[in-house]
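Troubleshooting: if your tokenizer reports a length mismatch, compare your output against this known-good record of 220 residues.
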Amino acid sequence: MRSKALVGHIPFPDVTGVILAGGLSSRMGSNKALLPYRDGLLIEIIYRQLASLFGEIIIAANDPATYGFVGGRVVTDRYPGAGALAGLHAALAGSRTPYIFAVACDMPSLNLALIREQVALRHRADVVIPEGDKGVEPLHATYSTACLPHIEAALKENHCRLVSFFPRVQVLRLSPAWVAAFDPCFTCFRNVNTPAEYHTLRRTDRPEPPVTGLSVEAMP
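Known-good structure output:
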């Protein structure tokens, strides 16, 4: 099933876009994914951005009825209580393509040019992950379905950190300098965890710049 928002050419038909929306939003006090933003809700804005690149969008969440209006297929955790890694496992298990590109439901400042260049490297490793000013960004990463058994093994061992299975797979890290060629301030990795951060986002929001087709030749 193709996402209903898609028309025309899909740059990456072998990649599924994934929005992880299974968190408790405890610091926000309400569901972050459903916060008003621009001309819709936070999750709708992220969905539309991903839908311009990928042939299907999956939403990983434990309350499917909440997200039925968005348009993407909803998958639920097979390891309840194991956090974002369980959501990643559910998305990979439910994917109909050999790769996924995963982001969180509270990351509204995605940079499509960066995502294009990152996903174009998917054949080079099991995980393609960028580094920002705070380290690696596992919720802005490309994953091969080859990761699935290794994630499952980590979950069965009660290792729930998103990077806990990385020693078992091939990982390509994209350096901060590589990322900065697209987003010098690493704004694309910014998420919204608290009411103060949400109000700051609304106050400082600017329209997303057009995709220019920029390509970075140098690898990290």
